[in-house]
Amino acid sequence: ATWPLAARAQQGERVRRVGALIGFAETDSYGQASANALVSDLLLRKSSVSRAGAEAPDDYDVIGADGLIVGHIFRASTAPAGTPWMWTLAYGQHEDRTPTHGYEPTREAAMQSFAKSWHRET
Prior knowledge:
By secondary structure, this protein is of the alpha+beta class.
C-alpha cells in the first residue's frame, strides 16, 4: 500500500490514518465514497512536543488535509477508569462542533471518535 505524500514526508516518524468504522452495503456507492473521505483526510503523527497531562510515548497529533494540527490523541495521565485515551480537537478547530473531546478505552476507539466529531456536519 502506498502512503499519501504527507505521510511519506515525515522524517522517521510512523504516521497512522485516523478513521471510523462505518457500516454500508457493498453496492452503496455513496457510503463507500463517504468512508473513503473519512479515512483519507486525517493523519495521526507522534507528537514532537511533550504536553502536560499526556504520557510522552503515547502522545499523537491529528493532522488535517491541509497539513495543520487539528487535534490530539493521547494516553492521559489522569482519566476516567477504563478509558485512558483522550481525544480533543485543537483550539480554533472546535467552533460549532460537539463533542470537542472525549475518553476511550483504546487509541483506535479514540481515533474513531475524533473522526466522527471532525466530520459531523456543522
